[in-house]
Amino acid sequence: MVLEPPERLTRTVTAWEGEAGRRWLARLPETVAGYLDRWGLTAERVFAAGGQISMIVLVRTDDGTPAVLKVGMVNRETAQEHAALACWGGHSAVRLLRADPEQGVMLLERLHADVSLRSLAEPKAMLEAAGVLQRLWVPPGAGHPFTTVEEYTGELVPLLRERRERAYAQDARPLVDEALADREHLVGTASEAVLLHGDFHHGNVLAGDRLPWLAIDPKPLVGERAYDLAWLVRDRLATLAAQPGSRAAARRRLAKLADAVEVDPERLRGWSRFRAVEAGVWSLSVGDTADAELLLEFATWL
């Protein structure tokens, strides 16, 4: 069976990864077919609303068990996804059944892909999300393969400084300077190192059968909990921005999340600003001005 990549995947990989992405997309149908055969899998259908740089195929194993074949581009953020899932062993995260890390291929337990925490009202979703995230924060183990927050954000610093000088970022320069200062202070005073999800938001927590909610799609790092929680602070940002008193609402959300998981609110505020500004300037660099403006405005609220 020849399965073609969905339009969404083709669009994002082409836009984000350029020529390397186009070459990967050209090989993708053959790669998927090879793993279906090699691992004794029967394809049911491609999940069109799947990953932004990965193809998701709903499959059954040779004994009829429903599963998911995930074939993704390997980059700095995704290279250790399999290692994080193995470390968690299905505890509050999707269970890894089989992997070929060098090729970015994983066989995963099947969850309810159409039911994420976004299906819940925000207060309930935030409560469930905080519980899942806390259970993921485990010691990474001696000799772990994961990049640290200090290393990862250190690589972002020169990119952020270079983009700061571009014409598109002229109005954002004061925010960039504040974000860089936040990052320097935070990495210089960090005192904990746990395994982090790295990309934790409501859309990356799906309903399961073993447990009510399970995390998917980690971009694992090792560092302090406030870094991981920062992504959750800005979840459902468009909805947050549309409501009256959005600035005060954002600050209340930050305070509630910090209190719920016993994280220093000032450290959470700093990482929330840094991550929002970095993402906002990246969005400017790829011409996504709507997202950029929203992210940078959010950073000013904090």
UniProtKB/TrEMBL annotation:
One Pfam family cited in the UniProt record for this chain: APH_6_hur
Molecular function per GO: phosphotransferase activity, alcohol group as acceptor
Keywords: Transferase
Superkingdom of source: Bacteria
SUPFAM superfamilies: Protein kinase-like (PK-like)
InterPro entries noted in UniProt: Kinase-like_dom_sf, NH2Glyco/OHUrea_AB-resist_kin
Alphabetical list of Gene3D superfamilies matching this protein: 1.20.1270.240, Transferase(Phosphotransferase) domain 1
Protein's GO biological process: secondary metabolic process
Descriptive protein name: Putative phosphotransferase
Organism: Actinacidiphila reveromycinica
Highest classification ranks of the organism: Bacteria, Bacillati, Actinomycetota, Actinomycetes, Kitasatosporales
